[in-house]
Amino acid sequence: MGAARVLASVPPHTLLVNVGQRPPRLHPTPTHAPQLPPPPGRCCRWKEALWLATRGGARALALDEMVGSLEAGKEFDALVIDAGGGAGFDLFPGRDGPLQMLEKFLNNGDDRHIAAVYVQGRRVVGG
Q1: How far apart are CA 77 and CA 121, in angstroms?
Q2: What residue ranges do the domains of the chain occupy?
Q3: What is the pLDDT of residues 23-65, one digit of tens each?
Q4: Is this model's pTM higher than 0.70 or not?
Q5: Considering Cα of 98, then 101, then 107, then 112, what sign does the dihedral take?
Q6: For a Cys-Cys bond, which of 22, 43, 68, 100 suits 96, CB 3.0-4.6 Å?
Q7: CA–CA separation, 82 vs 57, rounded Å?
Q8: CATH level 2 (architecture), domain 3-22+37-125
Q9: Cα torsion at 31, 35, 39, 42 (round to 10°)?
Q10: What are 4-13's pLDDT values in tens digits?
């Protein structure tokens, strides 16, 4: 199933989150310098953690042409998140937009919020 069809079928209060990449394949050494983790004693902010788990991870493994973002032509691996799952955090209508829902899921969400899992464009978990 294509990303556009999945995105069109996602109900309100859900988020579609790219879940990263496959195990590494043999690739030539990247010519760009890898991003380093934060220095000891410094926490990652949620946006940094999301980048490291998606685009940053794909770039570090030299797979960013295939995975790491929800773009046409890339492999579609994603989670559909039900942010209204009722466990771990509250949503406030009118105040919590998509970014606030994503931040709350990344900081406090768990498997009870995962409505579906897609691997290579196929739904493998969820109804």
Answers
A1: 6
A2: 3-22+37-125
A3: 444 444 455 555 666 567 777 788 988 898 899 999 999 999 9
A4: no
A5: negative
A6: 100
A7: 24
A8: Roll (2.30)
A9: 170
A10: 555 555 555 5
